[in-house]
Amino acid sequence: MKLGYKIAVRFLKSNKGQTFLIILGIAIGVSVQIFIGSLIQGLQKSLIEKTIGNSPQISITADTDDKEITEFDEVYKKIKDNSDVIALAVASDHPAFLNLEDTSKSLLIRGFQLEDADVIYKFSENIVEGRVPENENEIILGIDLLEEYELQVGDVIEIINTNQKVQELKLVGSFDLKVASINQNWGIVPLGTAQTFFEVPDRITSFEIQVDSQRVFEADMISDELETIINRDELEFSNWKKQNEQLLSGLSGQSISSIMIQVFVMISVVLGIASVLAITVLQKSKQIGILKAMGIKNSTAGFVFLFEGTILGIFGAILGIALGLLLSVAFTKFALNPDGTPVIALYISQSFILLSGVIATLASMMAALIPAIRSSKLNPIDIIRNN
Predict the structure, then answer these.
(1) Residue 384 — very low, low, confident or very high, per pLDDT cuts 50/70/90?
(2) Helix H segments across the chain?
(3) Rounded distance, CA 119 to CA 110, Å?
(4) H/E segment holding residue 212
(5) SS3 216
(6) What are the beta bridge partners of residue 311?
(7) Which of 251, 273, 277, 354 is 20 to 30 A removed from 304 (C-alpha atoms)?
(8) Nearest-CA neighbor of 37 among 246, 263, 245?
(9) CB within 8 A of 324, min separation 6: which ones?
(10) Kind of pairing, strands 206-211 and 58-62?
């Protein structure tokens, strides 16, 4: 085997131009695989982040006429004890009207324990002006709503509930959650303010949950698990997968397309290596015949080409990984949105890159099998006689 390796290295060095072209061919295949794979994964991650990054992945609401959950402390504890839950917030949601001088605007008042809700919605990171409510009777509104009605942070605004009760709230901040409907229609207040104003003490309307990032695509299973543990018929469980079936279908189509492209790229690489090494067998048949006449075994002759395939695969994979990463970085530098951010954020998966390199190396070894078998069957007498 050691002799086969030495002969393989010598064969590769004897025709450096051909060796470089094969390595370059493998590298291009690997770089395309890494670039497309990283691009698709980055796009999917970006879509998922925009869809559910700042929103609950599991919601629990009341399937009752008043849509309110009572005796929720025990349910809260059961959810909190689940190891897959990383964020949990209770909400008290109620329709209301923003009373303006010459008109009124419908508003969804959302009462939160803001410290918990901030983990999910990241209000503190998305505050444009002012701050998150810290005291009762304070509110923050979306930036689009402020601009439309010329409101300013520091104003005292009037909110009217469905029972015509009026409450004055101090506007302490504006937020931008990057969703127009939310920026136009949400009013965020402390939980106690919502419960007092709408006269629903000790009652909430929903639990909002985020799960471990590694199990985002298992949110439906976690939801079913929580439903079994909580075991309350009046509660309704929903998850982001159920609410975004079209998005999941699109992501699945992207993944399949990416895999097919990568498979065909690797097939073309394998065929290219196999054909070049098969020609090499013919080119080196005289040398192989002489070596066999000198006593090397058929297995050693076969190992020569297996080692060639392995060496070419390893160097091609290393160069391909470097080119793939360079392409990915370049794409995020030149493909930019008007605000200067990348169209698709760079996503580097070490496991995916390693897998691509391993697949390229294994593919090169497989491509070398045919010429390896062919070389082991060469008859030294016939070769020497014909030459």
Answers:
(1) low
(2) 2-14, 16-52, 73-80, 114-121, 143-149, 180-185, 191-197, 219-230, 240-243, 245-283, 285-293, 298-334, 350-367, 369-376, 380-386
(3) 16
(4) none
(5) helix
(6) none
(7) 354
(8) 263
(9) 30, 31, 32, 33, 34, 35, 38, 353, 356
(10) antiparallel
CA 25/CA 55 separation, integer angstroms = 45
CB atoms within 10 A of CB 47: 17
366 against 159, higher pLDDT: 159
**Angle between helix 298-334 and helix 2-14 axes, rounded to 10 deg:** 60
What is the identity of the amino acid at 311? I
Distance CA 46, CA 347 (A): 9
**Residue 337: φ, ψ to 5°:** -75, 165
In this prediction, residue 281 has a pLDDT band, given cuts at 50, 70 and 90, of: low
CA 16 centroid distance within chain: 41
Give me the amino acid identity at 387.
N
pTM of the full structure:
0.68
Which pair of tokens denotes residue 21? 């072209």
Please give the DSSP secondary-structure letter assigned to residue 342.
Answer: B
Residues paired with residue 168 on neighbouring β-strands, in sequence order: 158
Q: Specify the pLDDT at position 128.
A: 94
Of 16 and 152, more confident: 152
- Running DSSP on this structure, what letter comes out for residue 202? T
pLDDT of 155 > 60? The answer is yes
Go through 144-170 and write b for each residue having 16 or more CB atoms within 10 A of its CB, e for each that does not. bbbeeeebebeeebebebeeeeebebe
Predicted pLDDT at 14: 79
> Which tens digits make up the pLDDT trace of 253-264?
777 877 787 778
Rounded to 10 deg, the angle between the 298-334 and 369-376 helix axes is 160
CA 28, 30, 33, 38 dihedral sign is negative
β-pair type (138-142, 69-70):
unpaired
pLDDT (tens digit per residue) in 352-368? 888 888 888 888 888 77
